[in-house]
Each structure stands twice: as C-alpha cells, then as structure tokens.
Amino acid sequence: ETGVTQTPRHLVMGMTNKKSLKCEQHLGHNAMYWYKQSAKKPLELMFVYNFKEQTENNSVPSRFSPECPNSSHLFLHLHTLQPEDSALYLCASSQGTHTGELFFGEGSRLTVL
Amino acid sequence: DQQVKQNSPSLSVQEGRISILNCDYTNSMFDYFLWYKKYPAEGPTFLISISSIKDKNEDGRFTVFLNKSAKHLSLHIVPSQPGDSAVYFCAASVMNYGGSQGNLIFGKGTKLSVKP
To answer: N or C: fewer beta carbons within 10 Å in chain B?
Structure first.
C-alpha cells in the first residue's frame, strides 16, 4: 500500500460506545495530523504529532484521545461522543511540520447516534 | 470569524475555458498559501502553493496568483477539463515564524463543475 490509509472508512456508534480510528502512512514522513471536516465548515486541525510527540492540541474535547505509537501510525480514540461530533475525520502526514504540503488519507466518516 | 474565505460555494465552467477560483484571507501574518483538490470519497490532494515573496506560481494548466495588498489569491485553470471537476480548498499558514505546517487554515471550499 502507498500513501495514507485510514480505517474504518465508515463508523456508526452510539454515545456510550468506545471506538478508535486508525491511520497509517507509508511515505516515511515524520509528522501526522488529525483534521475534522463537519458539514459546511472548513477543515479544522485537531492534533499534530511530530516524531511521535504531540506538538499541537487545538482545544479538542477530551472525549477525543489521540495516540501516536510511532511515526507511521496514528490513532484517534473516541469515547462518549455527541451527535454533533458526526463528521469526516481526516488523517494527514508530512515530512516535518514546515514542508508546505500535507498528504491526506481518504477519511473516516463518523456518525454518532 | 473565518480567516480564509472562499465566497463562492460553486462554479460551473465549460470545458476548454478558464476556471478562476478565488480566496480571501484576513490574517496579514499568513505567508504561505496552498490549494488542495478533493474528489468525492477521497482525501484532499495538494495541487499548488505560493509563498508570500512571490505573486505568481505556475504549474502546467494551474496558476496561482497572490495579491498581498488585497489579501486575495486566485487559482486559474486553463484550459479546464471535465476531470478537474472537484472541490477546491484554499489554505494558508504562517511558515516563517516557527508555525507548524499543520496549522493550515482552510476555506470552506468551492465546488468546480467542468461541463463537456
């Protein structure tokens, strides 16, 4: 596989469930990101990891918990979400955090019932 | 308040003609601008970028123009092709002050339809 891969592509969960989104990049990049795209809103940065260290948390509620075990893998753990958290969650990677170009995955479409 | 604005949610153009997508920004600290293209069921893909030290960058059929005084940039596609039909996102960041590239601020996007 090449590029940035996200699983699952679609996820439906109840407000009391615990689920995780997974992202894997095969590009040898050092930085990984989580973005959220809600309907009719711009892409919003959630988290940034550089060399496995979190360098940015854009005031994201604690019900979203990221994990970056290595530079190739990024997880977003979801717990007691709200219906308004339903959105497309996009993972991206880049070679460092000042390279000027992000490579995005196809996204995980999350629906919270 | 949005720092990056794409005021046209959609644009329809005839094949072979020029497509012009516009983007305005409010933060004068932005010094790097990018355009991304997104097809349905796919993630955004990088298209072209421009640094604030330039006013034009060209790559094949795609040209980005930057007008710093007006805080405005535009993407020109010429000639437009049906395969260009997608949502185009404008994004901006502050690169020269140690900001993280991940701090890209995106617009809402403009859906381009190129008709055969």
So the answer is: N
Integer CA distances (angstroms), A41 to B6, B44, B46, B76, B109, in order: 11, 15, 19, 24, 9
Name which of B38, B31, B56, B20 is nearest A43 in CA terms.
Answer: B38
The separation between the first and the last C-alpha atoms of chain A, rounded to the nearest angstrom, is: 33
Question: What pLDDT does B90 receive?
Answer: 96
Quick one: what percent of chain B has pLDDT higher than 70? 94
pLDDT per residue as tens digits for the range A34-73: 999 998 788 998 998 988 788 777 789 999 999 999 989 9
Residue A64 per-residue DSSP state = E
Q: What are phi and psi of A38, to 5 degrees?
A: -95, 160
A48 interaction partners in chain B (CB closer than 8 Å): 100, 102-103
Chain A residues whose beta carbon lies within 8 Å of the beta carbon of residue B45: 103-104
- The 10s digit of each residue's pLDDT in B6-63 is 999 999 999 999 999 999 999 998 989 999 999 988 899 999 999 999 999 999 999 9
- The residue assigned the tokens 């059929």 is B61
**A17/chain B closest Cα distance in angstroms:** 25
3-state helix, strand, coil in chain B (%, to 5): 5, 50, 45
